[in-house]
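Long-time lurker. I teach an intro course on protein structure, and each term I like to show students one example going from raw sequence to a predicted 3D structure in token notation. This year I'd like something fresh instead of my usual example. Would anyone be willing to generate the tokens for the chain below so I can use it in lecture? Attribution to the forum is fine with me.
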Amino acid sequence: LQAGDREAANELYERLFPRMRSCALLLMGERGRARPDEVDDIVQDVFADVLVRRAVDSAAFAGAGDLRRYFATAIRHLVITRARVRKRHREEQMPSGRPGCGRRAPRTID
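-- Reply from a regular --
Happy to contribute to a lecture. Here you go:
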């Protein structure tokens, strides 16, 4: 992986994918219903991001240490970020002014 070896990247992906997927599935299960395709997308996005950043700035990963821990942390952050985006999107879709929708009901004068 140090020299940008594609074969090494593929081997690393094959070795780490099951654990990375389990980690994402566990985290997404805690934050809502996890769809298998979404879990796989998160793992692939994290892995691709790491490879791209590694290609651009290999010094950034010189002290990364345990790759499993690094990937698990990256997956955790991406799961949390996507959950926040989904929540924000749902809140934006709610009709405003209705009680229970995050806004106070207008007061009426009898």
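Some talking points for your students: The radius of gyration is 20 Å. The chain has three helices and no strands.
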